[in-house]
Fold this sequence. Notes:
By secondary structure, the chain is an all-alpha fold. It contains 13 helices and no strands.
Amino acid sequence: xxxxxxxxxxxTGPHPFSLALRDSTTMLRRNLLHxxxxxxxxxxxxxxxxxxxxxxxxxxxxVMSAGIGGEGADRADYIAYIVPGILMMTVGGTxxxxxxxxxxxxxxxxxxxxxxxxxxxxSVLVGHVVGSVLxxxxxxxxxxxxxxxxxxxxxxxxxxxxxxxFGLLVLFAxxxxxxxxxxxxxxxxxxAAANSAQPLILLPLVSSAxxxxxxxxxxxxxxxxxxxxxxxxxxxxxxxLGTGIGNNGWxxxxxxxxxxxxxxxxxxxxxxxDQK
Length: 276
């Protein structure tokens, strides 16, 4: 009588890390396919920064450039000023789709079904996070292409500054994605997740994305200064335009790391609590 064979994960079996990587890759593929099948949410979130870019450049551009750079400024000056803020707003808008996607999976019972399968427990969240960061990068590239098409130029930035700017965008996307995952896990349905994630779009509107924080009323200025988007935008602006960033780089890095840790711990705690 033959003896049934079993798969082991001991010294001669697959390494736990390789199993986790395999399952995370499978979940990533699932989320990317889900995005391809339901592109309307991504397109709607992507249209917001593009429309704001075109609106502020072509409708308000001359007035805003005169207010920022003086009478000698032109629309090109305001394009250079506004594009970094729009790129950061694109990241904030894109991760809203992650909150909705996670809440949908929780509400429809898909994650509960995954828990009954022999897969790595954290691969479900890792797939959402990596997929969201990739979507953020793609969205930033598309919005950046529109910005270049209407006149944005970054001739003074060095290759190292371009690399640092890309790293900042990825790190910022990672931090906000973990926050969005936590929002999705904590929301009872997709609509509530979308509503709870709205500050990720509203905060850039009250930052230095469109006008310098120093020109705002004194009572409102702290709202723009003491939030994650303003130092990130100022750092990205300095890197892309080849100008100084001061202490904004360290402040932006601290915000990114703090939000990433907070979002990860919140998401892990919610995910573990829902298993009980």
